[in-house]
Amino acid sequence: MQGSFNDLLLIPDALPLLLWLERMLGLRTHDRPPTPGEIGAHWVVWSVMAEVVAPRLFAGSVGDIRDVIAYAAGAVVAGCWWNRHVFARNRPV
User: Fold this and answer.
1) What is the rounded CA–CA span in Å between residue 80 and residue 16?
2) Is 86 helix (H, G, I), strand (E, B) or coil?
3) Which three-class secondary structure state does DSSP give residue 35?
4) Stated pTM of the model
5) For the chain, which residues make up each domain, given as ranges?
6) What is the pLDDT of residues 11-24, one digit of tens each?
7) Which of 23, 47, 46 is nearest to 34 (CA)?
8) Closest C-alpha to 5, from 74, 63, 76
9) Residue 62, Cβ neighbours under 10 Å: how many?
10) How many CB atoms lie within 10 A of CB 2?
11) Distance CA 79, CA 19 (A)
12) Residue 73 to residue 5: CA distance in whole angstroms
C-alpha cells in the first residue's frame, strides 16, 4: 500500500472537479452523481495518460499496473459512495 495511497484518491479527488468543469463548459447537462460510465471513462483516460503516455514523454516517469489497480479501487469505492442512494433504495426491508 505504500506509495499507492495517493493513487487510491485520484478518482475521488479529481473526478468531482473534472465533472464540475465539464458542467461549466456545457459538456455535462446535470449535477447528479457521476454514473458508472463517467467514472469508468475517466478511469480509463487517466490510466492511459498517467501510465502509458506520461512515461513516454517525461524522463523518470514510470508506468505501473499497480497504479491502475489503485485508480480502479478508488473509483469503485467512490462510485459506491456517490451512488449510495441507489443501494439504500434497493435494500430489503
Assistant:
1) 14
2) helix
3) coil
4) 0.84
5) 5-89
6) 999 999 999 999 99
7) 23
8) 74
9) 9
10) 4
11) 14
12) 11
